């Protein structure tokens, strides 16, 4: 018996990085998965399986999200993974960057949750998992103004949804990773001009002396999605190799 047998799971940002690992982990535990991503090429690289559907979706497109909610009305696990890292302090942050950060990191979760929650409430079963970050209201990092602001909002959004739907059988939790080795981290390190030096700098923030693996974050999502975590709601699980200690 897989830990997610019979569950239908919708994942945003499922084409690569943490989202991709969530898709793999959920499939391995018997779930039916709808992997969505803005990037169709990444979706095409997912393994073919009768339990996997792919769905191209930009999480800033509220109408498309509402359509997805109608099309997949049997979803009982929603993983909000798509995210965006803006660099800079408040003095470098433009209006456009702040709007984009809120649109991709927060309003996306407002829209997906609004789209999938009513059917979960009707069935009295649901688990919503929001990927936040340890750089939020947990701790800060230099030059992450818009990112930290929006990820802190994710923790508030998570607790609010958890509180309002606790009696309806719907749980809502967040995961706050530290630095995780994913394609987007790789691009940020490469953009610094010196990949090795940037990697050393990122690793030095982790008291464990290494970056996290996307599969390690997916393991926490798997627990939250499964019935093993049915007493867990409104929680934020920090998984950061000691970054915030
Ligand atoms: P990643 O860039 O490797 O993967 C993100 C995926 O989201 C990509 O496939 C991308 O195409 C998709 N995506 C981007 N914009 C989208 C949009 N508008 N609509 C739909 N899909 C979109 O990123 P990752 O490092 O795996 O990060 C995943 C999540 O984890 C993000 O929310 C990120 O903030 C969070 N996180 C990452 C780290 C880290 O160190 N990697 C740490 C803490 C939190």
Specify the helix fraction band.
Answer: 40-55%
Strand content: 15-25%
List each distinct ligand once.
Answer: nicotinamide-adenine-dinucleotide
Q: What is the architecture at the second tier of CATH?
A: 3-Layer(aba) Sandwich
SS elements, strand count: 9
Main sheet summary? 7 strands, parallel
**Principal-axes shape call:** globular
Entry summary:
The chain has helices at residues 17-28, 40-44, 62-71, 95-123, 145-164, 183-191, 195-204, 214-225, and strands at residues 8-11, 32-37, 52-56, 77-80, 126-131, 170-177, 180-181, 212-213, 236-239. It has 245 residues and is α/β, with parallel strands linked by helices. The model has no long low-confidence stretch (mean pLDDT 97).
Describe this protein's structure:
- The protein is an alpha/beta fold and 245 residues long.
- It has a single domain, classed as 3-Layer(aba) Sandwich (Rossmann fold).
- The protein is 44% helix and 17% strand.
- The protein contains eight helices and nine strands.
- The chain has helices spanning 17-28, 40-44, 62-71, 95-123, 145-164, 183-191, 195-204, 214-225; strands spanning 8-11, 32-37, 52-56, 77-80, 126-131, 170-177, 180-181, 212-213, 236-239.
- The chain has a seven-stranded parallel β-sheet with strand order 3-2-1-4-5-6-9, sandwiched between helices.
- Helix 1 (17-28) packs across helix 8 (214-225).
- It is globular.
- The termini are far apart.
- The model has no long low-confidence stretch (mean pLDDT 97).
- The structure holds nicotinamide-adenine-dinucleotide.
